[in-house]
Amino acid sequence: MAQHIGIVACSAEGASLCYRTICTETSGIMGDFNHPEITMHTRPLAEYMEPIYAGDWKSVAELMLNSTRIIARAGADFAICPDNTIHQALPYVLPKSPIPWLHIADMVGEEAVRKGFKRVGLTGTKYLMTGPVYPDAFEKFGITIVIPDENDREKIDTIIFKELVNGKFLKNSRLYFNAVIEKLKQHGCEAVTLGCTEIPLIVDPNDCPLPTLDSTRLLAKAAIKKALE
Q1: In terms of residue numbers, what domain contains 121?
Q2: Which DSSP symbol is given to 161?
Q3: pLDDT tens-digit series, residues 44-67
Q4: Phi, psi for residue 78 in degrees, rounded to 5
């Protein structure tokens, strides 16, 4: 009997990709049309953005806990969140959470170690790229993180919030990501973390200058593994 997966969602596109990945990846394991039970809940993204803009991560945590309690009451055995940025609030969530969590950056770090990467670029929102989520997680894996320069961080952030979370995936923006990732390669990076859960929808691994660590799909696959333990 598979465990019940709970998804604390934030932005629609990344949460949808995570959900679809769980459903499609497990059909080959559990049989046609089969996957673990899944419950997903989110507050409106607008409710998250106000405390994110203010750097009020305790308020972000309360929104996450609201969703966590709802999925727990629905029967979820553990929680995942397909949004890297709001993992900055997870230290405030865990002590009050009614169910255990998988941490998205831990899943990425484990994959980086498995593939032997020691120096990894990071793309995502400006809050993520300059925040503690990946440095804290990667430190225990002995992985060095490199982030884009300030101008590139601002441009990436704009693409995420003006385009990607709204389902807009433009060729020029894809090429811009590739240009930024090429710079990370020139700074000695061996791979790049796609650390906004929408970025895998625009960056194509086949023409990306570096191997990609797809945080969304890695989290989904880790949730499948845990559910089937």
Answers
A1: 104-214
A2: H
A3: 999 999 999 999 999 999 999 999
A4: -155, 165
12 shares a domain with 70: yes
User: What is the band of 31 on the pLDDT scale with cuts at 50, 70, 90?
Assistant: confident
Same domain, 122 and 197: yes
Report the distance separating Cα 200 and Cα 204, nearest Å: 7
**Domain identity same for 127 and 28:** no
Cα-only R_g, the chain? 17
- Domain check: are 92 and 138 in the same one? no
> How would DSSP label each residue in 78-142?
EEE-S-SGGGGGHHHHGGG-SS-B--HHHHHHHHHHHHT--EEEEES-HHHHTSSHHHHHHHTTT
Residue 46 sits in a domain whose CATH number is 3.40.50.1860
Beginning with the edge strand found earlier in the chain, give each strand of the sheet holding 144-146 in spatial order: 144-146, 119-123, 191-194, 212-214
In this structure, the answer to whether residues 39 and 89 fall within a common structural domain is yes
Same domain? 204 vs 164 = yes
State yes or no: pLDDT of 218 exceeds 90: yes
Q: Tell me: the pLDDT tens digits for 158-208?
A: 999 999 999 999 999 999 999 999 999 999 999 999 999 999 999 999 999
The pTM assigned to this predicted structure is 0.95
Residues 144 and 205 in one domain: yes
CB 83 within 8 A of CB 108: no
Percentage, residues of the chain above pLDDT 70? 100
